Amino acid sequence: GALGLALVNIATLVLAGRPWGVTSAFALWGSKAIAAAGVNVASWPYWTPAARAAELKASVALDVTSVMDAGIMLGALVAAGLAGRFAPAWRVPMRSLLAALIGGLFLGYGARIAYGCNIGAYFSGIASASVHGWLWLAAAFAGSVLGTRLRPFFGLRVERMGEARKRIP
Question: Closest Cα to residue 127, out of 20, 23, 14?
Fold first, then answer.
């Protein structure tokens, strides 16, 4: 696993000219959707640097991160199918859906201000000897503690350490 992650990060750095990242594509997709609705997102400070402005004008299919994200999703779909675990169904309680929506918005916002997610900010940040990777780790730990404490509010279980050990063969 670790060797595979390292090889993907090296390949991304060599081929794309930047460390591996995931979440910048989400900002691109969301901005393109909002732009399609008539909002001038090109004037937003995030999109004013020349490189980002070019990404906003180009096709999503030309964005390295978008292509990698699509590959990750397709790979997960194929892996689930090959494992016999692909069973799409909508059985999510409304409170769980609300928790996922709120958590996703916080994670997305945090990923943009922290220069990425656990891949771009943490993994690539630490691999490139950047302090922001270590700061991300501390913030992620604090956020995980807060998220775990909020689970009962959304009707979600908090699994205790003993329960997890019982399931491990």
Answer: 20
Q: Report d(CA 62, CA 27) in Å as an integer.
A: 15
Ramachandran region, residue 96 (left: φ > 0; alpha: ψ -120 to 50; beta: rest): alpha
**Per-residue pLDDT tens listing for the chain (169 residues):** 788 888 988 888 898 888 888 888 989 999 999 999 999 999 999 999 999 999 999 999 999 999 999 999 999 999 999 999 888 877 878 888 888 898 888 888 888 877 777 777 787 888 888 888 888 889 889 988 998 898 888 888 887 776 656 665 5
Contacts (Cβ under 8 Å, ≥6 apart) of 27: 46, 112
Q: What residues contact 23, with CB distance under 8 A and at least 6 apart?
A: 108, 111, 112, 116, 117, 120
- The DSSP secondary structure of 42-111, one letter per residue, reads GGSGGG-SHHHHHHHHS-GGG-HHHHHHHHHHHHHHHHHHHTT---------HHHHHHHHHHHHHHHHHH
Q: Distance (Å, rounded) from C-alpha 6 to C-alpha 128?
A: 12
d(CA 125, CA 21): 10
Ranges of each domain in the chain: 1-88, 92-169
